[in-house]
Amino acid sequence: MKILVTGGTGFLGRSLIKHFLRSSNLVALVTRDPEKVKQLSFYDSEDLYVIDSSSFSSLQNGFESFNPDLIIHTACCYGRSNEDDNFMFESNYEFGVNIFNLANNNSKKAFINIGTSLDKHTNIYSLLKYQFVEFCNAVSKKKTDVKFINIKLEHMYGPGDDETKFTAYIVNSCLKNIKSLDLTYGEQTRDMIYIDDVISGIQAIMDNIQVLKNNEEISLGFGIATSIQDFVKKVAHLSNSKTKLNFGALDYREKEMMHSVADVSRLKQFGWTPKYDLEKGILDYIEKEKEL
After folding, report:
1. Is residue 172 part of a domain?
2. In a domain, 121, yes or no
3. How far apart are CA 26 and CA 17, in angstroms?
4. Are 78 and 101 in contact (CB under 8 A)?
5. Is residue 167 part of a domain?
């Protein structure tokens, strides 16, 4: 199969591409910075095709030349580095619209979007991600050449993730035994899903693309919510960290979502089950992070 992956230099994109290349697929990685791709371990693979998306013409030419069977859209910007609103709009809405329109115009098999489980009004990132899904749903109802599937992804974690993400920050801080960590009370609950289970969940969706309905939305998580406080304590315990955990030192963020958990019943219909509970996932994360 020929699979096009946006956001291929990001944590999820890299993990998906490694998985697809191991499975003997042809993969196109879409990036604004082709030079950055040269740093990736799989850059020299004969089955990897790099598409420059720095301009629409180069994106269109690369898309039509590669001619993918299926598109997986992981590209996004969380806004953690204070990116301005224009950049957030281009990354989380406009770029996705361009890719989706190319898929429609070239009658591709399916477009799988990696969305978010965050509430629509949590921040600019979540608002734009929801608006993108609404756009694709509206277009695909009129023009059904491409099957649009939205995955509501819960809180993904794993080795090699961006250290600005909360889970990566906690794991790396505990491994480094920093003196102390200021935290909220940690009463929020999140559905934590390990990266390997995310990959197998996406693969299960791909394997069952024929039976999925157009505009179907599928939740992807472990299926159990864990408090942030329990997660942090478990990381500290399993890493034998000496870091002092100062719960309650920080206020909750404005519009903090206090609970999120996935309904994984649809995925279980496909025979999918997660293999990493929280302890197993954290232990694997810690061991692999030490090797990086």
Report:
1. no
2. yes
3. 9
4. no
5. no
Quote the number of domains for the chain. 1
Alpha-helix residue ranges (DSSP H) falling in the chain: 11-22, 34-37, 56-66, 85-89, 95-105, 124-142, 166-175, 195-207, 228-238, 265-269, 278-291
Q: Which of 132, 252, 119, 115 is nearest to 185 (CA)?
A: 252
Q: Report the half-sphere exposure of 216 (CA within 13 A, side-chain side).
A: 16
If one counts every other C-beta atom within 10 angstroms of the C-beta of residue 64, the result is 12
Q: Which pLDDT score is estimated for 290?
A: 87
The structure tokens 């089950």 sit at 273
Q: Which residue range(s) make up the domain with 32?
A: 1-153
Which residues neighbour 181 within 8 Å (Cβ) at sequence distance 6 or greater?
Answer: 170, 173, 174, 232, 243, 244, 245, 246
| Residue type, position 258, single letter | M
**pLDDT for the residue numbered 58:** 96
Torsion of CA 229, 232, 235, 236, to 10 degrees: -100
Contact criterion met (CB below 8 Å) for 29 and 17: yes
In a domain, 51, yes or no: yes
pTM over 0.85, yes/no: yes
Say whether 6 sits in a helix, a strand or coil. Answer: strand
10-residue mean pLDDT profile of the chain (292 residues): values are: 95 97 95 90 94 95 96 95 94 97 88 96 96 95 86 97 94 97 98 98 97 96 98 98 98 93 98 98 96 80
* Pairing label, strands 226-227, 189-190: antiparallel
At residue 292, the pLDDT reads: 75
CA–CA distance, 158 with 11 (Å, rounded to integer): 9
Dist. CA 265–CA 25, nearest whole Å? 28
Residue 113 has a pLDDT of 98
